[in-house]
Amino acid sequence: MIELSRNVTISDAEMDITAVRAQGAGGQHVNKNSTAIHLRFDISASSLPDFYKQRLLAARHHLITADGVVIIKAQEYRSQEMNREAALKRLENLIRELTVVEKTRRATRPTLAAKKRRLEGKLRKSITKSLRGKVR
C-alpha cells in the first residue's frame, strides 16, 4: 500500500505486480529466477481523487502510456522483494512529482537601495575601465 497523504492511499489490489526474468548479462542466479518486477497501474481505474487523475493523465511522461497506464520495470537488485520495493517507491515518486502544485509567481520590484547599489557598481566599473586607457 502506498500512502501519498493522510487522505490519499493506493491499495495493493489496484496495482498489477508480476515477477519476470531480468534482462542483461547472464551468470549465477540471473537466468534461473524471476527477480525483476513489472508494475502496472491503471490511473483511470484507480481510487485516486479526480485532481490526481487529471494531473497524471495530462502529464507527458515516458512511464505513462497513451491509455493512462503506468508501467514500471524494476530490475536493479538481485532480490525480488527489493525490486518490488523499488518499483513501489518509483510509482510513489512519480505520482508525487506530477501532482505537485507550484506556487504562482508574483512580480516584484527592486528596492530603492538595490537600484542605488547597482548604479554605484556600474559607476565604479566605468571609472576602472576609463583608467585602463592610454596614458597621455
How is this structure best summarized?
This protein is of the alpha+beta class. It has helices at 50-58, 80-98, 112-130; strands at residues 2-3, 9-10, 15-20, 36-42, 69-74.
Please characterize this protein's 3D structure.
A hairpin with a 5-residue loop joins strand 1 and strand 2 (9-10). The termini are far apart. With 136 residues, the chain is of the alpha+beta class. The protein has three helices and five strands; from the N terminus they run ββββαβαα. It has one domain: 2-Layer Sandwich (Double Stranded RNA Binding Domain). The chain has helices at 50-58, 80-98, 112-130, and strands at 2-3, 9-10, 15-20, 36-42, 69-74. Helices cover 35% and strands 17% of the residues. The strands form two sheets. The chain has a three-stranded antiparallel beta sheet, covered by helices on one side. Strands 1-2 form a two-stranded antiparallel ribbon. It is elongated, with a radius of gyration of 27 Å. Its EC number is 3.1.1.29. It comes from Paramixta manurensis. Its main location: cytoplasm. This is Peptidyl-tRNA hydrolase ArfB. Residues 74-104 form a coiled coil.
Largest beta-sheet details: 3 strands, antiparallel
- The total of helices stands at 3
Instruction: Give the radius of gyration.
Output: 27 Å
CATH architecture group name? 2-Layer Sandwich
User: What order do the strands of the largest sheet run in, or round the barrel if closed?
Assistant: 3-4-5
What would CATH call the class? Alpha Beta
3D shape: elongated
How do the helices and strands follow one another from N- to C-terminus?
A: EEEEHEHH
Determine the mean pLDDT: 86
Distance between the termini: 81 Å
Enzyme class: hydrolase
Subunit structure: Associated with 70S ribosomes and polysomes.
Catalytic activity: an N-acyl-L-alpha-aminoacyl-tRNA + H2O = an N-acyl-L-amino acid + a tRNA + H(+)
Protein name: Peptidyl-tRNA hydrolase ArfB
